[in-house]
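# step 3/5: fold
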Amino acid sequence: MPTFTAAQLAERLGARVSGDAALAVTGFAPADSARPGDLTFAENESYFARADQSAASAILVAGPFESTTGKTLLHVTNARVAYAQVLPLFFPEPTLAPGIHSTAVVASSAEIDPSAHIGPQCVIGERAKIGAGCVLTAHDYVGDDCVLGEGCRLFPNVTLYTRSHLGRRVRIHAGTVVGADGFGYVFDAGAHRKVPQVGHVILHDDVELGANVTIDRAALGATVIGRGTKIDNLVQIAHNVSIGEHCIVVAQVGIAGSTKIGNYVTIAGQVGIAGHLRIADKVTIAAQSGVMNHIPEGQKWMGSPAQPDRVTKRQLLAIERLPELLRRVQELERRTGPDDKVA
């Protein structure tokens, strides 16, 4: 693992050092498992108290903290952001050598940048284009006419159907399928007739897809995921959906066809969104919500069916009071008799 001085880390993070700037930092670990030489981090007072009593030699902190045990502190504006910046220094992603593995199957018309890494058992279709610095780790399938921008990384067993288009630095984790048929059928003469799905999928720059995500290609046109959007494991995105920039979509979300989602939207785990809806910018949808209506900009919705959070919270509070209200009604009926009416 690389070694840095506290001063070197501070320079990279824009931090201020209090304590020994020449301290050699040899690793990064949480406070409860840190060893001498490690850097840990603390984003609030209780975390700092534990970190200060730990075996770590240095602490990444945000706020006016002072060590009582002589530890070196790196003061930053946001400890969690700095944590994300420092981890790659100690745990860099493995570098894979450029080249095409002998077991890969590559169409003669495919264009592969010499700096790309094509791992074992990968298949690359006709006219596919693989950009500079791309990594296909193993058993990846890239269909005909797919395009991968520079710096994309496909983990094992990723499938890109025909004409999928990836921007730069797109990361796709194991088992994910991009561009499968959208779920489109019409009922005809007592049977479900398939509607051909002839569109494609576009993933813009810096999109990341978790493991076992499925994104269906459009019936016509494109299913689109905007720049910087991050999608967790086991998410299903249907045909002709459009998701804007820098959204967060948490695990087990399902989004039905032709729904349009704006920028900076947060969709928590196990949310279901019906088709042909409009979810505006900066919306937050709480976990396990069932969305059946358009949502205006900046609102927070929850519940099933989902409503503005203040409405759902009032309803939940009322439900909590129901047992007591029923008890009181029963007591009034007992006092007045079954034939009397309560005024």
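# step 4/5: annotate
The chain has three domains: 4-90, 158-305, 317-343.
# step 5/5: archive (pending)
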